[in-house]
């Protein structure tokens, strides 16, 4: 008798988002929504699984992939897939999928919110009020920096970068970008100007990191990069913490080489409240929630499920990462 495909989901997801999987396979999932699956459970599951639906917090490395005799597809509920060893998966004939496009606008909204929060000191203002400190109105109370008519420098002009540029046009910003290749469409739509990395860093009032984490981009934002920025400029990261040398950023903030930072991502996640970057009042830090709207997270879970269901049915999934398969 033919074996019914088996899928393991590494977090608890709403039932309606996994409906496409329930039609084609036996499915089980890690019971918890707010805690990653323990490694030993994942190791047990991959011995039988034909498909895995994974999160950015799961490390899907070569060892794990090599111990998965039936595995045909890993579907990550994220646009980024640096948590998966793509080379090993490709060698082993395992398809890897992601959830592009549907999270673009939601992530761009959060990136822009982070930029505005740090520039206009919004979380500081909210805590000031909640802490009972507001006794008098004052002309320069919590005065921040303007966003409109400033220069934004976007590092990584992919889909999310272009969506941030589009938002920046509404604020009459001058838009610079740096990317592996020119994005003529974004240039045409937003007036963004392609510049080299050094020029972007030196000229921007907001340096916004949206490039994926790869061997080339790892640790690219060093102390020396922050040192080249204007003292009045802000650094925003909504991509991956691995692009930033966090010690270098902490030194730069300590020496007041930059005006502040907005960070949604960190080198090692989750961070604790003792993390050195949290000690600066001009840092706004968030727990990796770029694409976290209810609508978008439901769509991402559904697309991640559909990707697997396509493979099980013998079709090529739409959001395939290792395309040479
Ligand atoms: C989130 O970080 C993603 O890559 O979608």
Essential attributes:
325 residues, alpha/beta, Rossmann fold, seven-stranded parallel β-sheet, five-stranded parallel β-sheet, binds glyoxylic acid
What form results from the Cα inertia axes?
A: globular
**What ligands does this structure carry?**
glyoxylic acid
Average the pLDDT over all residues and give the rounded result: 97
Total helices: the number is 12
First-residue to last-residue Cα separation? 29 Å
Level-2 CATH architecture of the largest domain: 3-Layer(aba) Sandwich
Would you state the CATH class of the largest domain?
Alpha Beta
Give, in spatial order, the strands making up the sheet with the most strands.
8-7-6-9-10-11-12
Order of helix and strand elements from N to C terminus: EHEHEHEHEHHEHEHEHEHEHEEH
User: Oligomerization state of this entry?
Assistant: single chain
Q: Name the poorly predicted regions.
A: none
**What structural class should be given to the helix and strand makeup?**
alpha/beta
What is the fourth-level CATH superfamily of the largest domain? NAD(P)-binding Rossmann-like Domain
How helical, in percent, are the residues? 25-40%
Helices and strands in order:
Elements: E1 6-9, H1 19-22, E2 26-29, H2 39-46, E3 51-54, H3 62-66, E4 73-76, H4 86-91, E5 95-97, H5 104-119, H6 122-130, E6 151-155, H7 159-170, E7 174-178, H8 184-190, E8 193-194, H9 197-203, E9 206-209, H10 223-228, E10 234-237, H11 246-254, E11 260-263, E12 283-285, H12 294-312
Parallel strand pairs: 1-2, 1-3, 3-4, 4-5, 6-7, 6-9, 7-8, 9-10, 10-11, 11-12
Helix pairs in contact: 5-7
The structure holds glyoxylic acid (GLV).
